[in-house]
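Hi Y.,

Following your request, here is the sequence exactly as I used it, all 193 residues.
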Amino acid sequence: MPDSAKRPVTARPAARPSCGTCCRKARVAEGLPPEIAEDTPLSLYGLVTGLPVGTTRLPWDGPGVRIIEHTAHAPGHAALLIEERRVLVAGDMLSDVFVPMLDDTGDPIEDHLAGLGALQGVADDVDVLVPGHGSVARGEEVRARIGLDRGYVEDLRDGRQCGDPRVVSPKPGWEWASGIHEGQVRSLARGDA
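Below is the corresponding structure, written out as C-alpha cells. Let me know if you'd prefer a different format.
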C-alpha cells in the first residue's frame, strides 16, 4: 500500500512546514527515550489540520463529543468527553505510567495546572478515562489520576522531592519513563520550561 493510502483523513501534506514545526519535531525526536525512538513515527507530525479556534463540540454525526481544550502538555491539546457514554479521552494526560509531560512554551507549570482544572471540571460527568498511554481508569480512579498529576506538577513547582510512584516505583517495563521526570527537573532548573 502506498504511504499516501495509509495517511489518516485528518492529515494533509504540507507544502513546507514552518520553522516552528520543524524545530518542535526535532526537539520531540531528540527527547524520545532510546527504548521507544524507533517505534515512534514522526512523519505526520505537524500535518494535522486543527479545528477552528473556539470549537467546543466535535463536528460529526456520531455521539455528542465535547472538546475540552487546554494548553497543558502542548498548545492546543484537548480531551474529548463522549457525553452519552461518560467517557473522557484524555490525550497525553492522566497516564498511570507517565508523569505529566510539560510543554516548553508559555508557563508550563501553571498551564498544566489549568489543564488539570479543566479536566477536574468534567470529572463528575465521567465514568471511564482513556489516557493516551497506560491503562483505562474507572470511577474514583479518574479523580485519583487527576490528583496524582496535580501533586506531581505542584511538587515540581515547589521544588519538592518527587514521591510519585510513576517515578520512584514504575510499573514493570516503564522504568525508562522516570527519565521524563529527570529531564523536566533539569529543564526547569535551567529555565527552559
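Confidence is low (pLDDT under 50) at residues 1-18.

Thanks again,
Q.
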